[in-house]
Amino acid sequence: MTELGPLPEEWEVVRLGDVIEKTKQKDPKKAPDWSFKYIDVSSVSRDTLRIQDYKTYEGKHAPSRARKLVQSGDVIFATVRPTLRRVALVNYEFDGHICSTAFCVLRARKDVTIPEHIFNSVARDNFISELGKIQRGASYPAVTDKDVKNQKIPLPPLPEQKRIAAVLSTIQRSKEKTAEVITAAKELKRSMMKHLFTYGPVPLEGAENVPLKEAEIGPVPEEWGVVRLGEVVNLIMGQSPPGSTYNNIGEGMPFLQGKAEFGAISPKNIKYTTDPKKIAPKGSVLMSVRAPVGDVNISDIDYCIGRGLASISLKKGDNRFLFNLLTYLKPEIAKEGTGSTFKAINKSKLQNLKIPLPPLPTQHRIAEILSTIDQKIEAEENKKKALKELFKTLLHDLMTAKIRVNDLAIAPERKLNLQQLNTPQRSD
User: Fold this and answer.
1) Whole-number mean pLDDT of the chain?
2) CA 379/CA 6 separation, integer angstroms
3) What's the CA angle centered on 329, arms 328 and 331, to 5 degrees?
4) What is the CATH number of domain 156-213+359-428?
5) Is the pLDDT of residue 13 over 60?
6) Distance between CA atoms of 119 and 114, rounded to whole angstroms?
7) Do 12-155 and 225-357 show the same overall fold?
8) Cα-based distances in Å from 176 to 26, 272, 303
9) Which helix (H) or strand (E) holds 68?
10) Could you report the per-residue pLDDT of 375-412, keeping only the tens digit for each?
11) Strand (E) positions, 177-289?
12) Which residues partner with 175 through β-bridges?
């Protein structure tokens, strides 16, 4: 039994500061022509726990917080709002560059630990929650480097540290590959929408043979119509019910106020109301008519909608086609928003929006093509979510020895699962 709970006899409990080396600071302004990469707190993704972005400065223009030198293998931990878990392992790309003084830089003592073990130690929920207890400041909560280094961490023997790191890295790589597939699929959908709404559902190589006509909204196939949205849809502008009728226990009708409750395709309601005013029927397209103007979802059930939303349904047509068309037209729709405090679009402007309208069979075909891509994106998003949860669970269990890494190696079903996680899935 240790202060961190029960641990194997060969494991130690150490103060983080005792297993890291001292790091250095550098004032870039003393090298005014030096060009360096700068990592600030917003550069680190809370989702991937990676450095996702950076800015390049010359020394003479360096921000005042640009002071801490980093090298490959360092772990950076944001001491500002530490419970947000902005932690990352520095790779070779940033070796010799600079991060903000809002980070605590942790450099592993190679004789006792490895960088990955430091990263895994400070990324754990328990480590984060302990710092949350001692953060100071109401509007700008923070801890000091000393607070971070004073935290206790488990220290398995080096061979076991490396095996734990290998297992967790496998899951992280799988999550990153899944994220890449999602990004590629979303880019494919954007390209496909441009093609479909210009030429229709024809192969790419057949686009040049499609007879087009010039319309106010740009070129469209000759057999397509161009109409005002109000001529072909049922449009319902939302009206918020009295606040006293809201509840979270399921009484009455699901209520959506605005974009905040939107999911990937269908919305995720968070309220109910016992006094619904305006109803968006199942299958209709929901549009955010207040900032951000133009975001759309499909109503998977009947919803009461508030002033931030509109329900749009084709009188004769495929609402899945309409959903994708309005998604494609969002930049143009957003331009119609007006208002000084926040942007909004009114009913008249929506009704006057010009849209292309192909024959119904063409609408169905376009909707089917884009729905297939959406299904792929949704499947990969679910896989990414599962991998994220698996990483979180194994991070806790391996770092507290609830599961020993040697057990993973000898359990056939677990070994198989870990191998499958790193196997790219076939995409038809």
Assistant:
1) 91
2) 39
3) 105
4) 1.10.287.1120
5) yes
6) 9
7) yes
8) 33, 37, 36
9) strand 66-69
10) 999 999 999 999 999 999 999 999 999 998 877 643 33
11) 212-215, 218-221, 225-228, 233-237, 246-247, 253-256, 271-273, 279-280, 285-288
12) none
In sequence order, what E strands does 238-345 have? 246-247, 253-256, 271-273, 279-280, 285-288, 296-298, 303-305, 309-314
- 239 close to 256: Cβ distance less than 8 angstroms: no
How many Cα atoms within 13 Å fall on the side-chain side of residue 56?
A: 5
Q: What is the DSSP letter of 221?
A: E
Can you give the pLDDT at residue 222? 94
Give CA–CA dist 369/214, Å, rounded. Answer: 25
Q: Where are the alpha helices (DSSP H) in 261-359?
A: 319-328, 330-335, 347-351
Tokens of 83: 């419970």
Output the six-digit token pair for 205. 């190589």
Cβ neighbours of 68 (radius 10 Å): 22
Right CATH for 12-155 from 2.40.50.140, 3.90.220.20, 3.40.50.2000, 3.30.470.30: 3.90.220.20
Report DSSP state, residue 244: G
Could you give the C-alpha distances from 23 to 38, 74, 145, 202, in angstroms and in order? 17, 10, 12, 60
CATH 3.90.220.20 fits 225-357, yes or no: yes
Across the range 254-276, mean pLDDT stands at 81
Contact indicator for 259, 288 with CB cutoff of 8 Å: yes
Please say whether the beta carbons of 381 and 387 come within 8 A: no
pTM beyond 0.85, yes or no:
no
In whole angstroms, what is the distance from residue 174 CA to residue 384 CA? 8
Q: How many CB atoms lie within 10 A of CB 343?
A: 17
Q: Decide: 360 and 316 in contact? Cβ < 8 Å.
A: yes
* Phi then psi dihedrals of residue 234, to 5 deg: -95, 120
Confidence (pLDDT) at 408: 67
Segments making up each domain of the chain, as ranges: 12-155, 156-213+359-428, 225-357
pLDDT for the residue 260: 63
User: Cis peptide before 267, with omega less than 30 degrees from 0?
Assistant: no
Pairing of strands 98-100, 35-39: parallel
For the segment 66-117, what is each residue's pLDDT rounded down to a tens digit? 999 999 999 999 999 999 999 999 999 999 999 999 999 999 999 999 999 9
**Is the separation of the CB atoms in 285 and 311 below 8 Å?**
yes
